[in-house]
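Structure tokens please, single chain.
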Amino acid sequence: MEILVDDILNIKKKELARKLICSLAGNYKVNFKFAETFAPDENYEYHDREFSEAKEVVLLLENSEDRISLQHILYVADKMVIKHWRQDWIYENREFLSLVKDHEWKKIQISEEEAKGTWTQKVYQVDDCPRYEGRGTWIHADGRNFWESQADAALPRREITKRSDYNLLRRFSHIEIFDNGDWVIEQDNQKILKNQDGSEKLICLERGLETFTVQNYDASFAEEWWNSKKDFWSIAQNTWLDFIAGNDKIKITEDEKLYMEQFKLAEKFTGENFDETEATKAIRELLSQHVEGFKA
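Here you go.
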């Protein structure tokens, strides 16, 4: 009977977690705040704190029993939007990409027991290439709903062209959803230089805060824009997922060039100009130039 009761409780927790994850979709004002807080080298020169805000629309792309996918669309101006990051949530996931350093990942496996009851957040960069994957259990206590994980990530886009002193961001993430629909991502990050022999040097610590505040604005432009491009990005996503499924290691070269060229392709194959065969060919040719082992 005890096992049966545990199973019932797990089902209820899973459905509550699914509801919470789906609630991340919506229209928001987002504030981004990042500040370096400590460095072991007393001569380290702290970089400027970063503060920014924007409108962001989070679209629910998939909502199945064990998988939920959310696409972020960033408002740059009233009639100007850009594809932002994507997050896929997988229930009791057992296979992960773990960052080695820079833009190189290796695949790792965990046991069924380790995965039990957990949700994995798989985060993809603006061009749908991997970024980081972390797992944790949703906690519901004292009126609070939150999820926490630790994962090694590639450099964030905000620093990828500015920094060469570190090549791995070890991030502890705390995601909490509030009763009014707002949510937050709190980060405690370690900026690490990982050497060829696997040894690590801590460069500094960083505190990050991303707050998503519900806003009642017209998001129809962002939704129409996404609808004109979603077929192209669906091919890109599936091409990446297929490649990841069949390979134990992933390594990207010239990450900046890859994402810029892929955005150009998205503009080319949009709306009435979309051609599935040609778009697939173009994406595969581009990835073959920047992803080790990828065959066009």
